[in-house]
Amino acid sequence: MSQNTAPRPSGTKPSSTSGAWAAGGTLFAGVLMLVTGFMDIFQGIAGIAEDDVYTRIGDYVFKFNLTTWGWIHLILGVIVAIAGFGILRGAEWGRVAGIALASLNVLFQFLFLPYQPWWALFSMAISIFVIWALATDDRYGPGETF
């Protein structure tokens, strides 16, 4: 039995199903980071504009003024959106920043739970998917770009 396979160019890795899922996940993670960034921007603007937009549920250890939360979400949203754009452009810094910022977003959304519990949980789940997708895309080795 002869195999009709052409040799791969040097430096390329064989494709795999998990690699394809990770590559698609990376693209989706970039889009999700853009969307999450813009949603955080809107969430921040709402918190800055009206201090009574969000209702606090129960007593909570982490008590911040809602205007402060608005500024945190606005600044984080802008940075997350920039990182999402970097991921879509294929920049390695976007991937590294995406993992770091998605981790930071999980932390901030956890602290924001008493104000918007369902949205905070949903945003945390998205951020965890983003971390997984960016961390498991092994198509590129150290120093290589998309």
Please name the defining characteristics of this protein.
membrane; transmembrane helix; mainly alpha; DUF7144 domain-containing protein; elongated; 146 residues
Proportion of strand residues: under 5%
Overall geometry comes to elongated
Output mean pLDDT: 78
Percent in helix: 55-70%
What is the CA-atom radius of gyration, in angstroms?
Answer: 19 Å
Give a short account of the largest sheet. none
Number of domains: 1
Structural class: mainly alpha
- The beta-strand count equals 0
User: Cα distance, first to last residue?
Assistant: 36 Å
Order of helices and strands: HHHH
Contiguous helical run count: 4
Weakly predicted, low-confidence segments = none
Transmembrane segments: 21-49, 69-88, 95-112, 118-135
Domain DUF7144: 26-138
Protein name: DUF7144 domain-containing protein
InterPro entries: DUF7144
Description:
Keywords: Membrane, Transmembrane, Transmembrane helix. It comes from Streptomyces sp. R44. This is DUF7144 domain-containing protein. The protein has 146 residues and is mainly α. It has one domain. Helices cover 66% and strands 0% of the residues. The chain has four helices and no strands. Helix 1 runs antiparallel to helix 2. It is elongated, with a radius of gyration of 19 Å. The two termini are 36 Å apart. The mean pLDDT is 78.
